[in-house]
Amino acid sequence: MEKGVHIARFFLIFVGVLAVGHLLAHLYFYGGEFHFSGIAGFAVDESDVDGEESFRFPLSEIILFFEWALILMGILFVYAKHKIDLKKEYHDLEILKNKMHFTKGTELDNFYELLKRVGHFRLSTAARVFDVDEEIIESWAKSLETGKFAELTYPRIGGPEVRLKKVGQGENDEENDEKEE
Q1: Sign of the dihedral through C-alpha 78, 80, 81, 87
Q2: Does this model's pTM top 0.85?
Q3: Low pLDDT (below 50) residues in the chain
Q4: Is there a single domain that holds both residue 110 and residue 77?
C-alpha cells in the first residue's frame, strides 16, 4: 500500500511539472492567446466576417486542458483518500480500544497498550478515541519517547504521529551513545 502511495505522488508530481512546462512552452510560442469562442460562438466573434474560422482550438490547448484537469482530479483523489484513511484509522482504533476493555492502569498505559497493538497512529485520531485534547496525547507520546518506547514523528503532510519503537532500536541508540563518548 505504501508503494502505491509513492507511485501516485510521483505520477502527480510528474504530470504537474509536465503541465507547467507545457503551459510555459505554449505561452512562449503562442503568446498569451487562448482562442475560446465562448457561449455565443460565431455570433460575437468578428473573425467570421473575414472568412477565418473563429473557433481555433489548437492541439496544444486541448492537451493543456486535459493536463490541468488530470492534476485537479489527482489532487481531489489524494484529498479524498486522506479523509477516508483518517476515518478508517479512527474506526479501527475505536473498535480496538473497545475490544481491549481497559480495566486497570492509567490512560497513558492504555495509550501504550493500544500503540503496541497497532504500531503507529496519528495523535489527532488518538485524541478523538480517548476523548482528550491533542496536547495531552502529545505529552503522552513525548513521555513514551523519553522512555524510548515510542517516537514522535512530524510528517510533511498531516499531523504528528506516534510510532512504536522496535525492541532493538533503543538498545542500539544507547550503544551508539557509549561509542561516541
Answers
A1: positive
A2: no
A3: 1, 37-45, 48-51, 54, 178-181
A4: no
